[in-house]
Design goal:
The protein is α/β, with parallel strands linked by helices and 570 residues long. It contains 23 helices and 20 strands.
Length: 570
């Protein structure tokens, strides 16, 4: 099968996908579409995200679905609201010329009453997240008795997000006589168990491998000290103009911190993480898809379900522990036949972790040097001309007579002056900056020994506040005590990042009371170490054995009506 026209799909479907620009099926579509059209066996399809899975399973089912029936015939389960909405949008586009087919999306974070109301229109197709589907089953708003097809999309993601019990409950609510189609990027143990328990003699389709997916992605890494990380990130962004990128961070706090740093430095960036409300998440996603912002700083969990085909760069601000996560992150660029670039910022002591990623994935990751100021200016000049040569859209009209007489300038002089105006601020910024490649990298011992100092740097980078006099003095002293000795971290203590600070009227006595309440159920009283109350957040130390109690106990408390959140400080 070389073209969609050879797939035996109905003319109405072919007309719709033709208008969407579908001509050549992807590999997963070539194998999956004819199978579903001709076989009733269950299916396990292994393929990476972004390979066209939605069309692969939905087009043949849409071709066979009974549009005269008002019963639910197709249920698609997916891990996130964002993916749910994307799949729903795609199916509605495919059914443009099939007006009797109705699709409804059901997901958390939106009015369940409105979704129940939409279900009264008797859709044949439901696309939903497991949690909301369970809720609607409990309210008797969903009837799966006539389901012919059940699709588990991104099954590995759903299981890794803790939906195992929900999936099993939903599967038990569906008739045994149905075709189950499981799509996954990986075949984890949990996915394997689901297939054994709920799929009958499944046919298997596997498209490509981790390494094949990465052929059009160039992988680079940059070794930088902790204190250099943000400046290094800024230089990489400046050296790659006209980019459209996702920056991946390890924690929610780090994500917000990096996003704040970029926004404070006039980049069109925003954060996406679990502390945002659903409305805030939707706003950020919309801005990113519309390219109102061109840099998204995100955690791995928050970025799940985000399907954007035109990303030019993926930047690993923090390396993941799992090589598969590295592959999944990087695979978000280089889609739709385009080339992509994956960049990793690593600390000197992370070389072993990077080596493990290389060995596990067989990906060639090339070491590069952080660009110099001169290299950045050259790249920026190239970026100006790239836009000039590729973007010819007339966005507005003006009277040509407003253009002054430029005959005194040669073509080269005019371009020179325009570039001076365009790049003036950037050139002045880097004019007297020492190149990072010339700066001595902190070693592993230095990094550990200055942990507290690093955390204060985080506070300055995120908040831009000055703090009180003692904090400023401590920072100037390079994290040293009054006697000049380096501050030592107590190895018996766990250091926590806490989301409230001075602006929340938090004081040390409050922090002590909060910790004691969190560990109150223990027979032994927890030892409490250093407590630092900063402007927007705080740090505190608690005896190591109480780590889990602290994390759990804080979740049940509020401080002056505000939710509290802590996580182990890196």
């Amino acid at each position: 099968m070389n073209l969609f026209t050879e797939s035996n799909l109905s003319p109405d479907l072919l007309k719709a996908i033709g208008e969407l620009g579908y001509e050549q099926p992807t590999e997963i579509q070539k194998q999956t579409i004819p199978f579903i059209l001709s076989d009733t066996r269950d299916l396990i399809a292994l393929a990476a995200t972004g390979t066209g899975k939605t069309a692969a399973f939905s087009l043949p089912i849409l071709d066979m679905i009974d549009d005269a029936s008002r019963k639910i015939q197709l249920l698609v389960l997916c891990p996130t609201r964002e993916l749910c909405l994307q799949i729903t949008k795609d199916i509605k586009n495919y059914t443009k010329y099939l007006p009797n087919l109705k699709t409804t999306a059901v997901y958390g974070g939106s009015s369940i009453t409105d979704q129940i109301r939409s279900l009264r229109e008797k859709p044949q197709i439901i696309v939903g997240t497991p949690g909301r589907v369970i809720d609607l089953i409990g309210r008797k708003a969903l009837d799966f008795s006539e389901i012919h097809w059940l699709v588990l999309d991104e099954a590995d993601e759903m299981l890794s997000m803790g939906f195992k019990d929900d999936l099993e409950t939903i599967l038990n609510e569906t008739p045994s006589e149905k075709q189950t189609l499981l799509f996954s990027a990986t075949m984890s143990k949990e996915v394997e168990r689901i297939t054994k328990n709920y799929l009958t003699n499944p046919h298997r389709i596997s498209v490509g491998s981790i390494n094949e997916v990465k052929k059009n992605i160039k992988h680079e890494y940059y070794v930088v000290g902790y204190r250099q990380k943000k400046e290094a990130l800024k230089r990489l962004l400046d050296a790659n103009p006209n980019q459209y990128s996702i920056i991946f961070c390890r924690t929610r706090m780090e994500t917000q911190e990096v996003a704040d740093f970029l926004m404070q430095n006039a980049y069109a960036a925003d954060a996406l993480h679990g502390d945002l409300s659903q409305a805030q998440r939707d706003t950020v996603m919309k801005k990113f898809r519309l390219k109102n912002i061109d840099i998204l700083v995100a955690t791995d969990v928050a970025a799940r379900g985000l399907d954007v085909n035109s990303l030019t760069h993926v930047i690993h601000y923090s390396l993941p522990d799992d090589p598969e996560v590295f592959v999944h992150r990087s695979g978000r660029t280089g889609r739709a036949g385009k080339d992509g670039i994956s960049m990793s910022l690593i600390k000197p002591e992370e070389s072993r972790k990077l080596k493990q990623i290389k060995l596990s994935t067989k990906i060639e990751i090339v070491e590069k040097k952080i660009p110099t100021g001169e290299e950045i200016i050259k790249a920026q000049v190239g970026g100006v001309f790239e836009k000039l040569f590729t973007e010819h859209e007339d966005l507005f009209t003006f009277d040509d007579s407003l253009i002054p007489d430029l005959s005194a300038f040669s073509k080269e002089e005019l371009v020179h002056q325009l570039l001076q105006l365009q790049l003036r601020d950037l050139a002045l910024f880097y004019k007297d900056k020492q190149d990072l490649a010339d700066q001595k990298l902190s070693n592993d011992r230095d990094d550990r020994g200055s942990r507290r100092d690093r955390d204060r740097d985080r506070g300055r980078g995120r908040d831009r506040d000055r703090g009180d006099r003692s904090e400023r003095r401590s920072d100037r002293d390079g994290g040293r005590e009054r006697g000049g000795k380096p501050k030592r971290r107590n190895e018996n203590m766990t250091r926590f990042f806490f989301n409230l600070g001075k602006r929340d009227n938090l004081k040390k006595m409050d922090m002590l009371e909060i910790i004691n309440k969190a560990t109150a159920k223990s027979k032994k009283r927890a030892d409490i170490g250093d407590i630092e109350i900063l402007e927007k957040f705080s740090f505190f130390e608690v005896e190591k054995s109480f780590k889990d109690e602290v994390l759990k106990g804080l979740q049940t408390q509020k401080f002056k009506g505000k939710d509290m959140r802590a996580e182990v400080a890196n």
